# Entry
Amino acid sequence: MLELIGEMAICLIVAVLLGFLIGWLFARAVGAEEYDLDYDEINIREDEYNSQLKTLQEKYNRQKELVEECNKKNRELKGELMKKINLLQKTSNSLQEIQQKHGNNITSRIRELEALIQKKDEELMEFERVLVKAEETIEKLKKSKKD
# Structure
């Protein structure tokens, strides 16, 4: 019985070795064709990848420079905007102070001017009435002289 188990173990070991050998030879035969790249072809692909990498790096550097320029311009414009906002606030505050100081004087002055305008309008209307009467009188006198 021990002899039979020994022979079976030897057969299994031989079968495993034989299977491994056949698989390795088959893999080499099939894989050699598939992975057998020409050295020049590898260099060409490597050169293509290097040129693409160089192009992408140049694009990246240009984009990075553009972003830096935009950030610089943005900072400058923000500074100018802040100056203008401050100037506008100062001007607005000054106008509000002037309006508060002189607001009542201005409204009273406007009322006075409106009253003067109304008085002048009344005087003009009276003057016009006097002129119309004078013209009527002159026409009557002319008519009476002709008769």
In short: Residues 67-147 form one domain.
